[in-house]
């Protein structure tokens, strides 16, 4: 198998003037007003184009797109269950591979892409995802991370950020809300030594589409983690969703980067970060936090950024010379 | 030409899957299913079978990958047992709802706890209502034949449903038996390549697995139920076709000396052969005893069963799983409800026997018949007993 870098050598970037016109996810779906997750999904599907075979985990994007007899999917699409999108995708890939090899179907260049929320990825579907990545199937897995179980009513997941209020991490006399730090899923994906891992935000839509396009271009498993603001669950105004998706990047709280063949590459350097307090302020899920809590979050964010910079340095030794 | 070989029954299953020229096998190892998937992975590794062997990280993913593979239009096989089958449980319901003709061999084994690797039917009885077609094999030849038949039925466009072939763990999976192995040409003549009715295809996009709101859920389930009921004549048709091609006839309900029998033993799976010997011995002793073997468990062949037992005064039902809290095991519960609808029928004695591979001998069958006949004659309430419990 060729390396991701090799496969991306002649990569044709999507530019603001060359945004694909094709849509694979139709209007008229039932997502909430201001949902940045469905926007991210539409952009990702657009970036893959008419070669897309989509798999959805159970969750917001699945229910809003497929109340029988309606569907928002213009591509072939399958939903099976909550925790198994990666396993289903691996089966589709294996089935097609066998049929192509045996001459029973033409190689039409279809791209198998699984879409799942943070709960379906970081919690209940982690095992299936790890297995599919380890086995090396040629597929892309996109985690649309809105930082809680929104479909069931805003319960905490392991992607919920420290301090956030959810319906199962309520702030109270004995609690600050979510008491754990967000699980670092892109790092877990990268630890599988897969060819391509990236983080993306719908506020940087060209970057997002290019990363998805790269993910489906490289042979083997690819993982893209997309920060997906949920105004309903985060208690922020719908018109602030994209602004929120921008602020978290500017606060260095959700760095945009790629891991190509194990090499970390920063997509957007944030030389003058905004304070995390600015990011937290517009979302009522954080409004109970005290100054010392915010100071703690700032210190962890700074440490995580430093660690990422160290990883970039460690995996790009030639650039040091 | 077919050839007669000595083969472990698990390997006979794998060889049938190879003869079916399957495209994808997604499986996770669990005793006593392991030899089936080990041999398949060898066949793939040696180039004897052109298929993708997907060594998944759990049975949940095995069934999920099978769903994906079948939805992509590939002929798909898996195998499991006990805890593995239970881990698949959630996805087992979804495969028939999506009308995916996956074939699975279940090497029947006790469910925990306590943990036990040995044979009974507690694993498959917990999956009674998943909506798959289910058959039970009694010996190695049947395992081979029923596996080939399963692909033929499941993929028939009048059916398009997944199908399970049950074979008793160890008692069948790990014994070597003489097997008549059909040639590739014979199998190809019986089983054409899989032509999916619909599949995930970028040239013809469809959505699979949509949300069933209350206005459509009931109708969707009814459609699945209708498909399962309508599979019955096709199952029989393809057994008849099998007999023409290979010379071995199978029926949904198999009978042995039932015509003038007062008492009929009802078995499912490998106990059937021991029971048959016991029946022959009782016949030799002048007793009017017969036997019914349930080969097709789902859809249950109610008419065939009632015909087979129409002359019987007493039924002696073998259950190999418990239904805790119910007044009998799952097979007897099924039979009692069927007989109740006829407004009469025989006395039904139910024995839960052979749990976790415990032997059920000819002598046991004779004692059960004695006990059942005595209870029926005395007009006792219908008997339910866990057989051979040590005090």
Can you tell me about this structure?
The complex is a heterodimer of chains A (321) and B (391). Chain A is an alpha/beta fold and 321 residues long. Chain A has a single domain, classed as Thiamin diphosphate (ThDP)-binding fold, Pyr/PP domains (Rossmann fold). In chain A, 39% of the residues lie in helices and 14% in strands. Chain A is built from 13 helices and 10 strands. Chain A has an 8-stranded mixed β-sheet with strand order 2-1-3-4-8-7-9-10, sandwiched between helices. In chain A, strands 5-6 form a two-stranded antiparallel sheet. The longest helix of chain A has 25 residues, at 291-315. Chain A is globular and about 65 Å long. The model of chain A has no long low-confidence stretch (mean pLDDT 97). The mean pLDDT of chain B is 97. Chain B is globular, with a radius of gyration of 21 Å. The longest helix of chain B has 33 residues, at 214-246. In chain B, helix 9 (271-284) links the parallel strand 11 and strand 12. Chain B has 2 domains: 3-246, Thiamin diphosphate (ThDP)-binding fold, Pyr/PP domains (Rossmann fold); 253-386, Rossmann fold (3-Layer(aba) Sandwich). The interface between A and B is large, with 50 and 46 residues.
